[in-house]
Amino acid sequence: MNLINSYVRKAPFSWFRSGTIDILVEDEWQRRENAEIEMDWNMLLKGVVVEAPEDASLLSKALTHPLANYINEREDDVDLRFSFVMNEKQFENTLSLDAAGLWDAALDALSKKIADLAGTKKEEIKQGVEGGIQGLKDFLDKKRNKE
Questions:
Q1: What whole-number distance in Å separates Cα of residue 29 and Cα of residue 114?
Q2: Strands ordered across the beta sheet of 78-87
Q3: Backbone angles phi, psi at 97, to 5 degrees
């Protein structure tokens, strides 16, 4: 968790105090007139404890509270699985995954999954998760640029 916290400084990831996160993404391409890419994401949280920092804003605490409660109430691992489909046209003439909308699609699917599990609205969760996704993108960019 220390590695992620050193790069991802936004909620909800910055609120993770202990444990590990394993992320697996599997994709399957369907060749048609316009190819579709089905992506299955699995985020396995092992021993993760979520705790809001004292200086977190009330809005940030309110948006991330359902996720924190859901994770902290579990005695076993938290398995967040979600899927979405992208069309090859979304990747045409784009220079980055951001431009293709990959991160927006992942954010939307993850927010829906967390909202379903936590019993809240997707829009409320999405605002809190959005910052964490941005931090994760920054982390992956830094790792990729070092190699």
A1: 26
A2: 16-30, 36-50, 78-87
A3: -65, -30
The DSSP code for 91 is G
Q: What would the two tokens of residue 22 be?
A: 């394993």
What b/e string do you get for 67-88 counting C-beta neighbours within 10 Å, with b at 16 or more?
bbebbeeeeeebebebebebeb
pTM attached to this predicted model: 0.62
Question: Nearest-CA neighbor of 126 among 106, 146, 143?
Answer: 106
What burial class does residue 90 get, using C-beta atoms within 10 Å of its C-beta: 0-12 exposed, 13-18 middle, 19+ buried? middle
Angle CA(131)–CA(113)–CA(96) in degrees, nearest 5? Answer: 45
pLDDT digits (tens, 9 = 90+) for 20-46: 888 899 999 888 777 888 999 998 999
